[in-house]
Design goal:
Blueprint: H1 8-32, H2 35-44, E1 45-51, E2 54-59, H3 66-80, E3 85-89, H4 112-123, H5 126-135, E4 141-145, E5 150-155, H6 157-177, E6 181-186, E7 194-196, H7 203-213
Parallel strand pairs: 2-3, 5-6
Antiparallel strand pairs: 1-2, 4-5, 6-7
Helix pairs in contact: 1-2, 1-3, 4-5, 4-6, 6-7
């Protein structure tokens, strides 16, 4: 029996293309909807490629108006092409357990990223923190440089750009609080890395600024 041969290079390209397409769709959704609804759509809708000409859309725990559905359809076709066949997939039952909820977790002393993640969680109001961590920070890959005491977070330009624009103060605060450098690095080295803290204001003033944001 002939062994199954897998073209690793082709598989990697396919995964990369799928991720790029999802990022493009997320960008189009943010352009087409207000921020709150765009976040809900990205959190609760899954876009599953069935084949080269068909895309399945699974809508979970969110109700969209006819106008919203049509706008979402336009977003999909603008990314996948006008010939894409869009089909509705059965939604998952909205079952929430304690395991599904994102909460601060118990960590080991050496787990720098989890410590920073927990501190970031505490920076946001309770209703917002779960979404921010799940939708944005959990999309980054984390590496720890123990020698230079630096946490490196790597992600696409879409996620890095949004985090810098919207959550820069929070990153500055947790970096100062933990006396560590946090480096945001673009996945393809598209732009220079961004390193926190900048130390342009005190930790106390940063905390006040963050509290006023929400």
């Amino acid at each position: 029996m002939k062994a199954l041969e897998i073209n690793v290079d082709s598989a990697i390209v396919m995964i990369a293309n799928t991720e790029d397409t999802q990022i493009q769709l997320n960008q189009m959704i943010f352009k087409s909807f207000d921020t709150a609804l765009a976040n809900k759509i990205i959190d609760n809708c899954k876009f599953i490629s069935i084949d080269s000409s068909k895309l399945g859309v699974q809508v979970n725990s969110i109700k969209l108006s006819k106008q919203d559905k049509e706008e979402l359809r336009i977003c999909i076709k603008s990314v996948y092409g006008n010939d894409i066949n869009i089909t509705s997939l059965p939604s998952l039952k909205a079952v929430k357990t304690e395991l599904e909820a994102i909460k601060p977790v118990t960590i080991s002393i050496n787990s720098t990223w989890l410590k920073i993640r927990n501190d970031l969680f505490e920076c946001f109001p309770h209703k917002l923190s779960e979404h921010v961590i799940k939708a944005w920070f959990d999309k980054l890959d984390a590496n720890e440089d123990l020698v230079s005491k630096k946490l490196i977070l790597i992600g696409s330009s879409f996620y890095i750009g949004h985090i810098v624009s919207n959550f820069g103060e929070e990153l500055e605060y947790v970096a100062m609080k933990n006396k560590i450098k946090i480096e945001l690095r673009y996945k393809n080295n598209d732009y220079p890395e961004i390193v926190y803290p900048f130390k342009q204001m005190s930790e106390a003033k940063l905390k006040q600024l963050i509290s006023k944001k929400y």
